[in-house]
């Protein structure tokens, strides 16, 4: 099942082919991608593949990636996820976020994250939600702290040591 989430300023829509242009604009920015994957901007083919794989995971698990859309302009300003760490079904569930650079500094990531956390706790019924990031990604760590998440230190995921935070229900 694909679940749409809404907040005061945002709409979170499960990834769909119609989001391609907005997601390409987001993921082809080297500054946005600096701490993600191998740090290189995504290509059109990679964005298409990520939409296809998110759609498949929505069907299979009932959670995956959303496009983060401004209610007042319908613009795609970012993306967020609830997923198994490393997409390994045996791993804990994590939340993630990224925003277009011109939308940093307005609380949009925190606002979207609160809706994704409520979904994970209330709809999926998970007992704890994790978040992982590159240890130098201060902006992302600040979002985790703002959400009241607690540090679990550095752990080996995604082929490197990442900072891990947790929020219990
Ligand atoms: C990580 C990322 C999403 C954080 O974005 P952000 O804009 O700093 O975070 P938020 O949207 O929660 O906004 C918080 C900032 O807005 C300010 N703000 C303004 N209005 C606000 C409001 N209504 N509510 C909360 N914060 C508000 C806060 O004071 C804070 O400002 P500060 O950076 O000066 O402390 C963004 O930097 C990004 O996309 N980075 C690249 C991708 C990435 O690395 N993602 C994480 C991978 S793990």
Protein topology:
Elements lengths: L4 E2 L3 E5 L5 H8 L2 H4 L10 H18 L3 E6 L5 E9 L8 E7 L8 H17 L3 E6 L4 H9 L3 E8 L2 E9 L1
Antiparallel strand pairs: 1-2, 2-3, 3-4, 4-5, 6-8, 7-8
The protein binds coenzyme A (COA).
Q: Which key terms come to mind for this protein?
A:
169 residues, alpha+beta, Aminopeptidase, 5-stranded antiparallel sheet, 3-stranded antiparallel sheet, 8 strands, binds coenzyme A, GNAT_dom, GNAT family N-acetyltransferase, N-acetyltransferase
The percentage of residues in β strands lies in 25-35%
CATH third-level topology: Aminopeptidase
Strand runs, count: 8
Summarize model confidence as the mean pLDDT: 97
Largest sheet: 5 strands, antiparallel
What this model shows, in words?
The longest helix is centred in the N-terminal third of the chain and has 18 residues, at 44-61. The protein has a single domain (5-126), classed as Gcn5-related N-acetyltransferase (GNAT) (Aminopeptidase, 3-Layer(aba) Sandwich), CATH 3.40.630.30. Helix 1 packs across helix 3. With 169 residues, it is an alpha+beta fold. The protein is built from five helices and eight strands; from the N terminus they run ββαααβββαβαββ. Helix content is 33%, strand content 31%. A hairpin with a 2-residue loop joins strand 7 and strand 8. It has helices at residues 20-27, 30-33, 44-61, 108-124, 138-146; strands at 5-6, 10-14, 65-70, 76-84, 93-99, 128-133, 150-157, 160-168. The strands form two sheets. Strands 1-2-3-4-5 form a five-stranded antiparallel sheet, sandwiched between helices. A three-stranded antiparallel sheet has the order 6-8-7. The chain is globular, with a radius of gyration of 15 Å. Pfam families: Acetyltransf_3. InterPro entries: Acyl_CoA_acyltransferase (IPR016181), GNAT_dom (IPR000182), N-acetyltransferase (IPR051531).
